[in-house]
Amino acid sequence: MNDQIKNFTNRLKTTWPVIFTVTVLILSCVTFQSATAASNDTNVSVIKRALPVYPKFAVNNKIEGTVLVSFSIEKDGNVSDIQVEASDHDGLFDASAILGIQRWVYTQPAKKIRNNYVAIEFVLADKADVSYFSNVERIKVTGK
Fold first, then answer.
1. Exposure of 52 by Cβ count < 10 A (0-12 exposed, 13-18 middle, 19+ buried)?
2. Once rounded to an integer, what is the mean pLDDT over residues 5-24?
3. How far apart, in Å, are the Cα atoms of 5 and each of 2, 20, 36?
4. pLDDT digit string (tens) for 26-72?
5. Rounded CA gap, 140 and 129, in Å?
6. What is the mean pLDDT of the chain?
7. How far apart are CA 133 and CA 121, in angstroms?
8. Which of 46, 47, 120, 127 is the most buried (most CB within 10 A)?
């Protein structure tokens, strides 16, 4: 009986890494498939997009800057989880960017969509499109 238990544990020790690897591969395939399926179900379009207000202090002092913001789109189409990821001038434009994004409305997705990014660029005049953030939607707010 002891020999049978020893043989069983020895076989288990040698096959355990293989079983673990196969399990991880299967789970990663399932996760990848569900992620790609989810991306197909999350197409949304903008219903309402309010532009942020250019801060008067920044206009009067001729200050320009950019705010990179992340947010989620809820199942009802409203925006939530708004966070400033990066900004210029010690957060001078942060509140304005957040208040503008709070008023955005999208079509209703099948489920909550997380990790959306947008760069809000506060500029005083129409300039060539120059941004520090690539692969991110950019919205230009002009100060007058």
1. buried
2. 53
3. 5, 21, 45
4. 444 333 333 333 444 568 889 999 889 999 999 999 999 999 999 99
5. 9
6. 76
7. 10
8. 120
